[in-house]
Amino acid sequence: MTAERAIPVGTSVSVKVPATTANLGPGFDTLGLALSLYDELEVTVRDAPGIRVMVSGVGEGEVPTDESNLVARSVIHVFDHFGIPVPGLEISAHNSIPHGRGLGSSGAAIVAGIMSAKGLLTGIVDVDSTMLLELATELEGHPDNVAPALFGGLTIAWVGDGGPKHKRLIAHRGVSAVVFVPETEMSTALARSLQPASVPHEDAIFNVSRSALLVAALVQSPELLLAATEDRLHQSYRASAMPHTDELIHMLRDNGLAAVVSGAGPSVLVLGSDPSQRLKAAELVAKNSSTAWQALMLAVDFKGATVIVHPVDGSV
Ligand code: HSE
Question: 105 in ligand 1 pocket by Cβ < 6 Å?
Fold first, then answer.
């Protein structure tokens, strides 16, 4: 980058990224839904080298505030990809997405960093949607959280020879979500270590049928959600690591509600075919659970991550 193309000190971007819930039962590492709970941040180019991070809300006093911060690493990843030196930056993050609960907080941090870099590089390089997904997936390892965080709505993500791809769909307007968030955290790495290397053929067929049905249920026929959210690929293998989650899911499903593990857990997602099912789920949990769960009544986010650029001189 030449001196003329350097990003002026004082240039800033505002970024907003939704929480996401992945898997949705049978769609392991594939299906994801963006939800109306957000991390927001401002990133400003400063007249000093290095990256300084300030965090308020979730993660305050816990996450790193230097260049090892996940948002900062994601910004650096994009600049490095284009061979452009990273300017001095101040990142101010206001987080609402709970950490370690299966609501895509690490995917949101990665997408926040990548969208910030995209905004800062406006007029220098174009980071299109294919590249956004590639860069985010390189950092996250799988695309099922970063795709809905980037693009909103319901996403089908897959990895082909040419890298990660996605198809975005609009969920049926009757679909509503409630997420029950426990006080304990779950490590995605631990959850993934509990997965077997291979599964019986009949279980694979079982999940293929339910995943196909789930796309139809979410887009067109929400009354099919209970049958469409059955799974044999991951939840039972991980249940021993989150017994309260497993218990809650069985209780809710026995009562006719489409409850699944949100992402790698331990939160429980209930997909309702109409908003009254959220209240029914909340009442059942309040009445029947011995452990504490925070109920988050959420809408589907249709926008995905947004970035607004604030140039200092109107030139960006
Ligand atoms: N598909 C992922 C998993 C989501 O269940 O392991 C969590 O990152």
Answer: no
Residue 182 DSSP SS3: strand
Distance from the CA of 104 to the center of ligand 1, in angstroms? 9
Domains of the chain: 3-169+301-310 (3.30.230.10), 176-298 (3.30.70.890)
Residue nearest to atom 6 of ligand 1 (CA): 264
How many other CB atoms sit within 10 Å of the CB of residue 79? 18
Q: pTM of this prediction?
A: 0.94
Ligand 1 within 6 A of 144 CB?
A: yes
Between the CA of 8 and the centroid of ligand 1 the distance, in Å, is 39
Rounded average pLDDT over 20-32: 97
Q: Is the peptide bond before 266 cis (omega within 30 degrees of 0)?
A: yes
Residue with tokens 């631990």: 190
Closest CA to 29 of 125, 127, 144, 134: 144
Spatial neighbors of 282 by CB under 8 A, at least 6 apart, are 178, 295, 297
pLDDT tens-place string over residues 84-110: 999 999 999 999 999 999 999 999 999
State the DSSP code for 303: S
CA 225 from chain centre, in angstroms, equals 21
Residue 299 has what DSSP assignment? P
